[in-house]
């Protein structure tokens, strides 16, 4: 066979596999877009473990009416314009891949309005095929609806787990962002029932609202030339669960988890790390959950030092949440 370029629709479907592994990855991208758009109200609806519906409504800046179509094209972003930007990135997104990927493997609709315009736009894409674009009345902000994920890629659809398992991943993503963004309103509705309604509150309260079993939290904090590490331990809650954030991004890092566990055993914890952007490489994978440090040792030392502050009987510093 001779060599030929793949059609864009096929490129997008293949690329979608990188970004969209399961319903929870769709939710992650939609939450990040809402937060990047400075929303402080995020309402999510999920049906059938996200296989049937994932909908997110935000009150963020919205998309310029002339950019709505552009938003679902591949490698289109409003968030960076040069390679330098990704080393000091303040937003979650920058690849411009999410909406194009998601809309190529679902029945996708987006409604968005900016405050300066009397009307918004509604866009409908089905499996990567443009269906409809029109003016529409809408509140300021953006609503994205993703139906029948993978309806046109049956091989991927077969890889999805049970509704129950997919829902577990969805709730996990929701919780990760809701913990960090405690100053924002979050709602999660599952199959018609509200599972979480979280009003803006202090971080400790947010954690207790999400996990009603937690009643006591102990703070830890350390700041040095490497950066800042702080968080909460819940000594009584022995779930073996923990949430790690670096510069506001939920991450997984097995070495850090091991360091923490060796100190506090199975107690529930959250760890928030603030590091200079050049210390961290989020660019490892499009799903951006794995993280690599340019220098490992100083970060590990910082976390160990922070955990040592748990041993002091009274910790009474005030923690102010810093901007990412
Ligand atoms: P990225 O987030 O990497 O830029 P996406 O495909 O997720 O790429 O989104 C493409 C663009 O669409 C974003 O850069 C942004 O300008 C716009 N956009 C997407 N979602 C929203 C939203 N909820 N509110 C405002 N703008 C959005
Ligand atoms: Mg994005």
Automatic annotation (TrEMBL):
Recorded superkingdom: Bacteria
The entry's keywords: DNA damage, DNA repair
Ranges for domain DNA mismatch repair protein S5: 207-312
Keyword DNA repair in record: yes
GO BP: mismatch repair
GO cellular component terms listed in the entry, alphabetical order: mismatch repair complex
Keyword Ubl conjugation: no
Molecular function via GO: ATP binding; ATP hydrolysis activity; ATP-dependent DNA damage sensor activity; mismatched DNA binding
Role description: This protein is involved in the repair of mismatches in DNA. It is required for dam-dependent methyl-directed DNA mismatch repair. May act as a 'molecular matchmaker', a protein that promotes the formation of a stable complex between two or more DNA-binding proteins in an ATP-dependent manner without itself being part of a final effector complex.
Family statement: Belongs to the DNA mismatch repair MutL/HexB family.
Name of the protein this chain belongs to: DNA mismatch repair protein MutL
Gene that specifies this protein: mutL
């Amino acid at each position: 066979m001779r060599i030929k370029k793949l059609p864009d629709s096929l490129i997008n479907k293949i690329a979608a596999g990188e970004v969209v592994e399961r319903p929870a990855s769709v939710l992650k991208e939609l939450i990040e877009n809402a937060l990047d758009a400075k929303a402080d109200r995020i309402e999510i609806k999920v049906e059938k473990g996200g296989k049937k519906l994932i909908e997110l409504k935000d009150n963020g800046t919205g998309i310029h009416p002339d950019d709505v179509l552009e938003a679902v094209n591949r490698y289109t972003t409003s968030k960076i314009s040069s390679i330098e930007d990704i080393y000091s990135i303040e937003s979650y997104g920058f690849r411009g891949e999410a909406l194009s990927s998601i809309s190529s493997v679902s029945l996708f609709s987006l409604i968005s309005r900016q405050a300066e315009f009397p009307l918004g736009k509604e866009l409908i894409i089905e499996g990567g095929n443009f269906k409809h674009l029109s003016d529409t009345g809408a509140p300021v902000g953006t609503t994205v609806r993703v139906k029948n994920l993978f309806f046109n890629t049956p091989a991927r659809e077969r890889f999805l787990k049970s509704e129950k398992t997919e829902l577990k991943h969805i709730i996990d993503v929701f919780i990760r962002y809701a913990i960090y963004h405690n100053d924002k309103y979050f709602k999660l509705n599952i199959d018609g029932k509200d599972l979480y309604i979280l009003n803006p509150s202090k971080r400790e309260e947010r954690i207790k609202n999400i996990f009603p079993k937690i009643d006591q939290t102990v703070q830890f904090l350390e700041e040095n030339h490497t950066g800042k590490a702080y968080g909460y331990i819940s000594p009584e809650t022995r779930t073996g669960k923990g949430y790690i954030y670096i510069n506001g991004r939920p991450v997984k890092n097995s070495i850090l988890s091991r360091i923490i566990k060796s100190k506090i055993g199975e107690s529930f914890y959250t760890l928030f790390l603030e590091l200079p952007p050049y210390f961290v490489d989020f660019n490892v994978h499009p799903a951006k959950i794995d993280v690599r440090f340019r220098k490992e040792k100083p970060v590990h030392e910082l976390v160990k030092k922070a955990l040592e502050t748990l041993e002091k009987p009274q910790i009474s510093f005030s923690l102010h949440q810093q901007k990412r």
